[in-house]
Amino acid sequence: MIYADNAATTKLDLDVFNEMRPFLLEDYSNASQPYSFAKASKKALKNARESIAKCINAEPNEIFFTSGGTESDNWALKGIMNLHKPNSVIITSEFEHHAVLNSCKYLESCGYKAKYIRPTKEGFITPKSLKSAISENAVLSSVMMANNEIGTIQPIKELCAVAHENGLIFHTDAVQALGHIRVDVKDLNIDMLSCSAHKFNGPKGTGFLYIKNGVKIQPYINGGAQEGGMRGGTENISAVVGMAKALEKNIAAIAENKEHLQKLEQTIVYLLSSAKIDYIRNGAQPQISGNLSLSFKGAEGEMLLHRLDLRGIMVSTGSACDSQNTQISHVLKAIAAPNEYAKGTIRISLGKDNTTDEAVKIAKALIHILKGK
After folding, report:
1. Annotated catalytic sites, by residue?
2. Residue 200: helix, strand or coil by DSSP?
3. CA end-to-end span of the chain
4. Phi, then psi, of 165 in degrees rounded to 5
5. What crossing angle do the helices spanning 301-310 and 356-370 adopt, rounded to 10°?
6. Does residue 286 have a cis bond before it (omega within 30 degrees)?
């Protein structure tokens, strides 16, 4: 099997698994308990929070553990908007992850208003477009750091500056970016950031929300006093420990991984172009390395996915959340991808474990399928 859908999820790193194992089988205590058996769990939780904070240049008390990116996005948007009166406005983009888009729809059903910025055809939200969308009642803006389908990296620092100049809180969904590009929350000056561990070789079902000190937000899950009383529920120590290890390891190897992934994507692009395949690559630089959204003229994305699957190659037809939807994705619609190409779109997302040989096999398989061989 050749797995090339790393934007959907990644393989758990073996070092990460080994870091998690003791907290599943040996030090399995509830960190909230006062007895000595809970000391190891308490210490592990504290160390993981400090490690993650260091990775993004945050303070440990600004890191709140969640079940993943979807929960973090929901909390960021609803936790802020619920502190404001109906008719208050949230501003986001048309090509956000559905965790953000559907949260906005829910908020609209509660009497709030949402504005959706259209990205450029290259796949970017510009500071000018954000500024134009800001109205009198706007209180929050949310723009993803890197698009999960076409990989474009947004000008977050500039967008955040526009938001703050106009009195808005700024949130970014960094699920597709963290662990793949360097993120410094102090330099970017963002107020909130969402993360999910399974996008950078950590465990599924865990993530965090960074909330800058001083930002007022409602607790999301009412329960015990965990996470400073902001997010109730017994902490998943093994998963949190694994997330910290995975983030540390990926950030330490960012330059090496980037170079490797760029070589792999260049191999695929070169072979397809040399075979005179009629396709376009969606988005423009800067993009997450290894993320290739390719649209083939006159083809069907679902057909390509299944034909590749028969050859043992795993890709997606766009974002993972739309994998069963044969319609053109909301991302491709937002960037106005040409219809004759858009229907034939697949997303090849390569990871650090993919090889040059696999990249060659992916390209050759596509060439054979598209040329009917």
Report:
1. 321
2. helix
3. 21
4. -60, -25
5. 120
6. yes
pLDDT tens profile 21-73: 999 999 999 999 999 999 999 999 999 999 999 999 999 999 999 999 999 99
Tokens of 194: 């969402």
% residues pLDDT > 90 (the chain): 97
Is residue 233 within 8 A of residue 75, CB to CB? The reply is no
Is this structure's pTM higher than 0.90? yes
The H or E element that residue 193 is part of is strand 192-196
pLDDT in tens, 135-150: 999 999 999 999 999 9
Q: Please name which of 205, 165, 208, 212 lies closest in space to residue 184, comparing C-alpha atoms.
A: 212
State the alpha helices, DSSP H only, in the chain. 14-20, 22-25, 39-55, 69-81, 98-109, 127-133, 156-165, 185-188, 237-252, 254-274, 301-310, 330-334, 339-342, 356-370
CA distances from 278 to 145, 263, 274 (A): 30, 21, 11
- Cβ burial of 36 (10 Å; 0-12, 13-18, 19+) is exposed
Q: Which amino acid is located at 184 in the chain?
A: D
Helix 237-252 vs helix 254-274: angle between axes, to the nearest 10 degrees? Answer: 70
Query: 291 pLDDT exceeds 80?
Result: yes
H helical segments located in 253-319: 254-274, 301-310
pLDDT score at 318: 63
Q: Work out the average pLDDT over 319-339.
A: 78
